[in-house]
Structures
1.
Amino acid sequence: MLATIPERIAALRQLMEQEGLSAYIVPGTDPHASEYMAAHWQETTWLSGFKGETGTVVVTMNEAWLWTDSRYYLQADKELAGSGIGLMKESEPDTPTINQWLQTTLHAGEQVGVNPEMFSVQSYAHLQQSLGSKKLTLKSIDLIRPLWTTDRPAIPDTPLYGYDVKYAGESVTDKLTRIRSCMQAADADVLVTSALDEIAWLLNIRGTDVEFNPVVISFVIVKQESCTLFVSPEKVTDDARRYLAAQKIDVLGYEDVYSALHDLKNCNVLFDGARLNRALYEAIPDNCQKTDRQSPILLLKSRKNPIELEGERIAMQRDAVALTRFFIWLEQTAGKEPLTEYDLMRKLHTFRTQGENFVEESFETIAGWQGNGAIVHYQATATDCAAIDGNGLLLLDSGGQYLEGTTDITRTVWVGEIPAEGTPERERFERIRHDFTLVLKGHIALACARFPRGTRGNQLDILARQFLWQEGLSYGHGTGHGVGHFLGCHEGPQNIRTDNNPTPLETGMICSDEPGIYRAGQYGIRTENLITVVPGGSSEFGDFLQWEVLTLCYYDTRLIEMPLLTAQEKEWINAYHKRVAETVCPLLTAEEAQWLQKKCETI
Amino acid sequence: MLATIPERIAALRQLMEQEGLSAYIVPGTDPHASEYMAAHWQETTWLSGFKGETGTVVVTMNEAWLWTDSRYYLQADKELAGSGIGLMKESEPDTPTINQWLQTTLHAGEQVGVNPEMFSVQSYAHLQQSLGSKKLTLKSIDLIRPLWTTDRPAIPDTPLYGYDVKYAGESVTDKLTRIRSCMQAADADVLVTSALDEIAWLLNIRGTDVEFNPVVISFVIVKQESCTLFVSPEKVTDDARRYLAAQKIDVLGYEDVYSALHDLKNCNVLFDGARLNRALYEAIPDNCQKTDRQSPILLLKSRKNPIELEGERIAMQRDAVALTRFFIWLEQTAGKEPLTEYDLMRKLHTFRTQGENFVEESFETIAGWQGNGAIVHYQATATDCAAIDGNGLLLLDSGGQYLEGTTDITRTVWVGEIPAEGTPERERFERIRHDFTLVLKGHIALACARFPRGTRGNQLDILARQFLWQEGLSYGHGTGHGVGHFLGCHEGPQNIRTDNNPTPLETGMICSDEPGIYRAGQYGIRTENLITVVPGGSSEFGDFLQWEVLTLCYYDTRLIEMPLLTAQEKEWINAYHKRVAETVCPLLTAEEAQWLQKKCETI
């Protein structure tokens, strides 16, 4: 057993030498391009000791480096100490990318190794092309598997379960029929996917393999006459076996997918090169045609059916009850008992667990007090978190997985008393109010948008940013990401960002609407609802679409600078608050309802 | 001499047979991808008799078809009558594209001929790929030149002239230095361009070869140590020769560019495949590397220098005087004398010619009365135009070429009396007002935008459309096109459209701001200014940009539905009108100034 980092690096170098490799890259991903990874695949951590979520290790005969972003600089410094691995700060403009570094460090003719399971077809091709321009070659080989053996955690083998069609809204048979007709349109005989959210959606299965995403670690191959799930046998309980058999889904072992692909002959294989792992691609024999295009599952999954949408609305009610109870508790407790950001995370989780059909959180809650709210990916922990002391601003971004659907909401609220007029604290409060209102105006403008069929999210993005931009302000993240249905809190292909994205918005897609503003060291503000595309009427000028707001939680109106709002914006807030109160109050105790009613008072 | 269309088609088929071609395509373009073409290149007209601006003829052994769009259906029907050439209505959804038609009409192994001068490198490659998918091959060959001989108009040989640096704002030496450093950055030894606006800008030359665009028909090859203009000797007068010699520009004959490229050896040739004609590409020997990327001239040209911008401001004043005088004349004349749309076009031209340094119009004026205003590319002619009868709406889109710069402006005005309350005419007028105001709100919102450096035009597009979209309305054209400086009225790479365009907006770029609404058969509304990108301040969130409005012409405030405007929009209009009055009135007679002052009254 290789007990220390230097031993592991030395053993890797020995294998590299045997294989004629001058460099080896360990990218900190898994064979499914997952957002949340099982411990089995935490190869970067095993090799370097670095425990951050994003990091790539590159080892040559003389050097070893970890690339990670600014969120993890401090952590990496600590965790890499004594390992002999240096830190490449990838958010710094002068830091070379891995490709650049390899191009300048290695010499023409040298070879770089990677495990093709850890790269998408497209990212592998990109790396290959980039190395090729300096006459370096790329070799597919897994050098971690032979080294990391006895102490390696197994691939999770928790049971999978059938996801009731009363929640999914469409049978597996119907989904397969639609996918097969997409395959026919693409002249494809076979479709293969390694994307766990696509598999869970297509086969109406869910699992508990990883945190936050109820997916099942597996692969799928669809043909016209069959559909095969490749999954470890331990996951397939008797119930699961019966369920899968009823859906006419064949079951083979997880690793059998490679030989199943290898055995194909003279057919056209459809895959999504942005998501399929390269090892699967390499398993497809040369006698087959390879058709790389966006997965048809991706688009079908993104357009929620009426039952999925109805489920989302129900999940939103449960979430609203939990959030309302949390904010009542916060108002009653802050300033009276010692509280930390971590306490808030736990408490909010407790309120959510009281909701029917709550399964787990959809991501780790972000509770950012004052300056911590300005750190976009801030994560308080039990041992490292700020105390909620005095009056101040709290940014709270959280979400739940319910059997009926997935939620994701951010509210920024003022905790404590509003500072007295004429004090410096009041001046700060007024600055916060101004920023909060600009963010809210953008949040409303996006929610109110009406747009012709065919419009892309990047065309709408400016609606959320315009008021900030007018004052020379901005935020560095996207305005909206796609959201799954009792699946990933982040999903494609749609989004609302400044970047180009060719996907038109279509009815049933869910996006977040989350502009923000971050004043480093001072405070952060973000306001987020989930919104879904609904029909917006037709005219001689075409079909139009608009948004329905799904999230049901009041805004802290004490933070609004009223003169900045137009009459329409006030009307919108009042109508929204009326809907929140009418929908959520009946689910609360009389006392709680009274509290919420007050928060929803007409402005 | 081939006197009739059938004779020409028959002669072409004879050549096609000799060359083993099953089809020949004549695309109605020229070797420079010009917007306005010299008669010499009107091969489509010669071959088919069709005189419309956009049309492609495809001839096979048994068939001949003209593809054109809906603007030209009536004209094509008339002009093709008896020619044996059929009409393909390319705006109809069921009409096959030329590629589709060739793919279904021809058989694998057959050959299609085109003159490579008439295709860009990219469009040729696209055609080749599309034909290749059905195993058809493409052959580069000019079959029109041997047929269209004695009666073919010559390539224009009007003199070129040096464009004074007092207008251009940057010497040829400085421009060449900048281009050569772009070439170095791309590892290129040679740059070749066939784009006439790029050549005119780079060498500070202008000409009168075609209408509306003061370009010189030519090619240019830039090397590190030399710059060669390929142009017919007739164009190079003694003055021109002295000018070019002073700029150290070598001069060779127009057709010599092909041999000059052919003689290159082992060098890296930079070109813009979207604009370079394919024949030039084919002339580059195989021993040379070919680097296809956006022309560096394009981007430098699009960012106007301070002297170009100052010139634009001066041109706008001259244009404002002409437009003001025109609108005064129109108000005094309409309803008293018989007038047609064509009369308005001529009269406006007359007023423009009275301006200092006016050279020509920058495009054919669009004067659309009532329902004609709803036809986006409407073109009245002396023999086919509407009478300006009674009260109604006039859309007037026009522009001028001045030595100082290029203008392009659209105003929509109400001609005659405002209909009395309670009449159906008044109802129509109120509908027009409503539409006009939605368009104006979008026009103002775009002009008021502030945005971070790096923002693309397609991100801003929705600002101009949002108010129309909210009411289920829309327009089918771009919101803004780039504009040249005493060059093309349309230029890239920037624009403001719904389509993706990767070009960020940069200071000095000029765009139009022209939302509209078109009610078929009833009326059209468009409001257009030219706007230029200027610095918009910096903050901890980065550098911002904003717009300066260049155009100086009042809006018809009788057409505004006042309750739809916000206080800020009214302020914007009042500030703009104040600027128009202050800038333009001193250039008018007292009486004219008084008239304009009234149009610019505070609302």
Note: The radius of gyration of chain A is 25 Å.
2.
Amino acid sequence: MITAQAPSSTANLGPGFDVFGMALDACFDTVSVAEEGSSITISSDDDIPLEYTKNTAGIVVDMMRTDFDIKPGVHIKIRKGVPAGYGMGSSAASAAAAATAYSNLYNLNLSLTELTRYAGYGEQASAGSIHYDNVAASVCGGFVMVHTKPLRVINLRPPENLTMCVAVPDVSTPEKKTQVSRGVIPEMVPLCDVTTNISFASSLVAGMCTGDISLIGDSLQDVIVEPARRHMIPALDDIRNLAVSAGAAGVTISGAGPSVIAFADGSIVDIDSVGEAMREGFGNHDINCKIFPCKSAKGAGTVQ
Amino acid sequence: MITAQAPSSTANLGPGFDVFGMALDACFDTVSVAEEGSSITISSDDDIPLEYTKNTAGIVVDMMRTDFDIKPGVHIKIRKGVPAGYGMGSSAASAAAAATAYSNLYNLNLSLTELTRYAGYGEQASAGSIHYDNVAASVCGGFVMVHTKPLRVINLRPPENLTMCVAVPDVSTPEKKTQVSRGVIPEMVPLCDVTTNISFASSLVAGMCTGDISLIGDSLQDVIVEPARRHMIPALDDIRNLAVSAGAAGVTISGAGPSVIAFADGSIVDIDSVGEAMREGFGNHDINCKIFPCKSAKGAGTVQ
């Protein structure tokens, strides 16, 4: 039996819709695989589909098993640590852990890009379209940029003192939340907005490379996707103002939301104060939230 | 009398339309300013307008003189080294040199961002809209990313071994070339193309920061502006293929064209061979060209 763990993640980071991802050590999914029987079976104590064609990890393993023509069946045991439906890369974490565990079970020696590709099939099931930002982060760790034609993951180690805080609101989210929140994004974008997002995405990468957390914070701006999703998170402006007052360098929606993530220089800012400010922001709108202070995480790996 | 020199530059670098610029030591404009009379007069041996309201350097100096309420007039002497109308940032070089010279004449102690802002007014006269990519590069040197609201220039030093080659075709260009070539760009962009350009722009910055010239070359891709301008440079695909065969890491249109620029790792590639390949590419379309092998330049500065 092989067990692998993969971290939660945040996608987009403001301007980088479907391009940027960052692995977060806030929480982890754990997936064990063991050769068993002649098909794919799944067990879990969590409230997730156990039919393998409807389960993120099951879909990933099914695809790998078919591609590598592996005859024996497999039993998959899933322990969810990442809350599903809140923009913390929950399905991506299961997919990344499943791809990593199964690859190790059969010594497939897959590259991180290949693991990302397989994990992406699992994402497709939950989001309705393949996007690799969360899975690339969960597989590779650190900060990632994704090219899709062809698939390529560029991986950077974020600054050591970069600290984050995710606020996960206690609200109900629609069944196919990612699909719904992708549906509100405009299909056509004015050229001036393209230029603005490219400028922020570029300077965000420069900040990651040079360790300039203030520049990272200033670059968490998005004039394309956030305006279309803002109505889904009415507390966002409040949270942003309060978190920045508490020392955050910048605040943005985590993935498709409804979680919100703040970035700060942990060497000069108390991240717990930032978290309390975010709690107050949601509180002003009568919403409770869970606070996850975190750092960038390593990518998926096997555990004992 | 104060004399300043400012380098040629390339804008866009593939995916970074109106955002990316790089100063090039291929050629320079030189602008001298001296207090004289009570208005602005201009002299030059080059074929440029000498009326200050129609001259890039004159417009810049006029704006600074007004803003700082400087009563005495000034004589501006301009020596053009950067060929105008070919995508090498000719007007930006004059504007940057003028802003730098005039700022020094009156010890205005302007920041690089302020100098960029003034130089931008000169660009506006030639391009029909303010864009800061070339002027920021000419003022600051190295590789720049520009935010516009508010204006902010993020400046990176490119890898030491990054070498470039500009091929300037011997073709006539329209009077208001930049304005014309901006006119062909679509005003609305499909979201999937936005994502693609953001991914390439981001990885180009990562390549600049980490010294990965191969990644820089792979990232010189643009699915928004280049497809709209490609018909203006029919030799582009030929040049690209030949230059890459000669060792270039990547090739793109320089600014609004019609010049083409190749990027290479000068420590392992003979840039003159890349230049000859580019010459052959234009030659296949019966076009002669001048070849400028170059490196990243320092920004505008005073000279004796």
Note: Chain A has a mean pLDDT of 95.
3.
Amino acid sequence: MSQTDNNRHRWCVIMCGGVGSRFWPYSRVDRPKQFIDFLGTGRSLVQMTYDRLTPMVDPSHIVVVTNARYADTIREQLPDVPAGNILLEPARRSTAPCIAWAAWHIAAADPEASIIVTPADHLVTREREFEKAVLDGFDFVGRNDVLLTMAVTPTRPETAYGYIQIGKPLGENFYKVKTFTQKPKKEMAEVFVSTGEFFWNSGIFLWKASAIIDALAAYAPEVNTPFADNRDVFGTAAEAGCIARIFPACPAISIDNVVEKATNACVETVAYGWNDLETWSSLYDISPKTRDGNVTQNCQVLSYNSSGNIFCISGDKLVAVDGLNDYIIADAGDVLLICPKIHEQDIRHIVNDAKVAYGDKFQ
Amino acid sequence: MSQTDNNRHRWCVIMCGGVGSRFWPYSRVDRPKQFIDFLGTGRSLVQMTYDRLTPMVDPSHIVVVTNARYADTIREQLPDVPAGNILLEPARRSTAPCIAWAAWHIAAADPEASIIVTPADHLVTREREFEKAVLDGFDFVGRNDVLLTMAVTPTRPETAYGYIQIGKPLGENFYKVKTFTQKPKKEMAEVFVSTGEFFWNSGIFLWKASAIIDALAAYAPEVNTPFADNRDVFGTAAEAGCIARIFPACPAISIDNVVEKATNACVETVAYGWNDLETWSSLYDISPKTRDGNVTQNCQVLSYNSSGNIFCISGDKLVAVDGLNDYIIADAGDVLLICPKIHEQDIRHIVNDAKVAYGDKFQ
């Protein structure tokens, strides 16, 4: 198959439905993380994801799956994505139903489609290496009926990620999957990293539409069957009505559960500077630091005896801070959060307490 | 002299020219502390001072001395003070020139005037006791040619205040002054408090206009002479022009220097819940606390593992704080300050650094 043919069948699915509260108060139910210009670049995370893919995938082949409440935001932030490519989930149902719908939708338009599936809110720092990895991946899945996961060379014994152990080599940077392991303990993670056989599951996948539909049919029929039973509606005016009926009834299953069961799971090992931006600490880690070792977003900071902090401030504000180390200081206009980075897992409790005390006002 | 006569000759001078930076960023050059509703009562400190005095002094006898830049603010905040009673200093020259001008101005209208001189920005918590002390003080200075300082029973060995040692009793709560001591060291302050002979200099004075003019003539002639040489202008259309000429040439001398030299210095000992509100800590100390031991001004606080903080926030904001103890958290809209209370003396350095870095923008 020629490069041009490959190009013609390349598609991208951006999963954009998250409502994560870990970046509260900066991320909010009405403005989740993926829509925020977190790095002060002038582009939101979903826009950066889009920008990263368009060199390989034509905007007419980019499909965005998001929650119905974010339809206007998507149209505003990604004006070049055709309206018919914006799939509005009527309910939140984890990643397998999302990916199933997108696969059936794309297959209706292009039965030979190869798809890269990516979260909207991850960060890639080395875009040229990313581009090469994606092109190699498209080539690999175009030639093989496999489920390909991009797996990142680990740089530390992270316990918050899933790990993939590589098996038989299938070419440069391509391997059969040997094992999947979710969030190992610290000691285990250290062993994983030391062996050189384990890689982080980045949550970025490549496969032919037909391959993922086959896998869903085999390993998650309760998700796939409603779509298969309505295969004629995709790409027609009847699609939205059908989805409104079948989607909320889908079980909330992660695509990881499908891939982990598949006998044709493969990995492409990559090292393009990936960060899932799941936490304030991860944003701190990847951001440039001031001389004092602080990260400042959208603000000027006068810092005294203060290091290791991340300041994420809405509006052009001066922050003067003395004697504060390793804190998150996030000011979203109506909410100011001051929290040690090591307590960031508790932010969701704070968000919940705010809901109990003030209803939806600060959610 | 009858009570009615006394009442007729009672005057008040509110010294309102401060531009203190210790409450930065909440207090600013354009909105110094005395004009802020610091306690969330709906009245600024100068309004609270005015409200405290009007039961004893008619608004037509209240004179406000302030900097020319605050003329509009005074007119807005104290609309019942006659325009002719607002004395606008063309330059900042400490308290002796301010008090000299006010005394000459009042003496021109009422040669028998007795005057209470008070800072605009102190706090009194027990107003009934304050009222009794002021009435007793007016009575005392009406009958005696003395310089009377209100001296507060100390409640702790404070090192930031001046102390007055009392001498010969002159009636209930009235004494000759034995010594003045500026800001003693801790050990000395502890001795002072333990003896029961030492009181805090509150900076509130009472005297006849003639008595303070005599004292200025004797102990600060370089301040008094320019006013004495122009005694005919006060209360006339020529006053402002004369002041514009003579006031900037006055040396910046504190009234303390005059009172300390005077042989007729007396004190009235008082215990009406006085706080000079010079620092964030003093505001913390006098404010009601949450169950967690925090002080919250103009904001809702969700507090976790946090105590001893003072939150002073502009706008109706939610603050969520974890693991922060004994800090000042002040948000003035364009500036956020986070600083340990024990470092509050360094805030003026921060203000200066902000000036160096950003000019007048955040001053």
Note: Residues 127-143 of chain B form the longest helix (17 residues).
4.
Amino acid sequence: MKIIIDAMGGDNAPLEIVRGVLNAAKARPGLELVLVGREGEVCAAAEQCGGLPAGVSVVNATEVIDMHDDPATAFKVKKDSSITVGLNLLKAGEGDAFVSAGSTGALLSAGTLLVKRVRGIRRAAMAPAIPTAGGRAVLIDCGANAECSVEYLVQFAYLGSFHAARVLGIENPRVGLLNIGSEDSKGDQLRRDTYQILKAAGEAGHLNFIGNIEAKEAMKGGCDVIVADGFSGNVMLKTIEGVGSFMGRELKGMFLKSLGTKVAALLVKDGLRAFKDRLDPDTVGATPFLGLTKPVLKAHGASGARAMENAVYQAVAAAEADVAGDIAAHIDLMRLDQ
Amino acid sequence: MKIIIDAMGGDNAPLEIVRGVLNAAKARPGLELVLVGREGEVCAAAEQCGGLPAGVSVVNATEVIDMHDDPATAFKVKKDSSITVGLNLLKAGEGDAFVSAGSTGALLSAGTLLVKRVRGIRRAAMAPAIPTAGGRAVLIDCGANAECSVEYLVQFAYLGSFHAARVLGIENPRVGLLNIGSEDSKGDQLRRDTYQILKAAGEAGHLNFIGNIEAKEAMKGGCDVIVADGFSGNVMLKTIEGVGSFMGRELKGMFLKSLGTKVAALLVKDGLRAFKDRLDPDTVGATPFLGLTKPVLKAHGASGARAMENAVYQAVAAAEADVAGDIAAHIDLMRLDQ
């Protein structure tokens, strides 16, 4: 198993990215890890972390795509960027998955145009696992596609279902359509039309479709795959992050109030850490772009070493699962133009 | 000031509704409160709470709109329902605001058709105040209109701004357009077109438009009015509720783990209650339908006495504020067809 990593992406590149990758190499001997980026900077970062261990190699890429580049064209304009070079290695079979903490838009455009979508898939979608009361659920899409057709949503339902089953290990994942009520007739025309197709797919045994689901019920663990257009999915994802950070701050204030509350904080220290971890992007790690022919994962832009290490493990899991193979084998179910 | 209350709406009607209204009457002498519902049941409930105090009267309505009624037509089919009778009283000038914990859809349809929208306003919108790190923000719309035009969103921006200024007392409220990124070009066509109109309104000094806002920044208190279509606004609102309930449960588990953590819970008891109150619908109270000629407010379906008492106070504040007057005076700014 060989994972290619963009050493130059994200707020903490290259040092923390390299540190995370080296930690993964030490924790899982046998993994092959390829760091792509400016060779001098990457090697200097590796030196700071104790040098390159066995299994880790560096591929030079002299350019870096940053926030000022146009996401749609950056990978073409900067042909020697770490994202372009890394994805070309993946395309050429020089690795099994690619991970980057860099620009989401650039990664999505480059992934789609270099690695390509599975034949018949209309759009790649971002599908993070979000924390729920029941454990976690795949939210697909959450920002790659602001405007969606019925066919996109139907395809997201299958993509999310395969990913939940193969990568998260959820048997017969319950697929829900994110909506503003649970009755059949709820929502806008897009939701009503999608509902009918997914219902038929459920009745035919192709999907475990449980119907419409409200965001509140989804957070309570009401389904394993939440199917959304990229706009409302993004609103859901960012609201979870926002409420988590807001509540975290309120809790902190509560515990800092007096000597008594500070004692209380000590008494629940372990529990608080576990609680924080549940919503922490450093633990949650990377978001896969589903629908491409090979695994491409986006790590959080603020990823530190721990997040990057987790992202590498998720890339391994994605490569082992071969969701793309599953998608290709079932593509006929996902085409509405026949 | 005279507030009309649907005594038969919600899960805890009529007893808890009546209890809340009587508590409001006792707390604020001089208020006139009108309970609308089945006279016998309402009076029996009042007896259980110590009898009807001065200022509270009962108007008989023999029917009740329930979940099985079609929201769009229920108020016409059940002409003697508490919602229909109450809204007709409001329309006739027999009160200054109407509050119900009953069916949202029925209240919205009946409110729109009986009390009517302000001339020139295309759609009424639901505008709850949500908790944020900075205090609170008006989220408009959050479920009344699943499909929106540019004009609807522009009108919501003004409605929310007037409400935030007049009712919540926020000076020069910062208006943000809920979007999946902060740059001008982000989002779908609806957002891009709306952005241009709101930007021009901001430049002309009609609105304090701060641009696009992501859900995460909105939760951090980045604006005072969050402008959304009813679909994504509902997703945001329900996600807040869901994460709140999920985190509340996780916290409870954390505090129940051992003797030490139980001691900790005692030490932060007051803080925990304040924390819970921040996200509690019983405290947050009622959601106004903005855009109607008179104040109509929806209380949470699960409202208990405390929520109902708060809802009455919010109805008083809404009636005193006369947001409808503000809207009518500025309607020319909100019409895109000129």
Note: The CA atoms of residues 191 and 219 of chain B lie 20 Å apart.
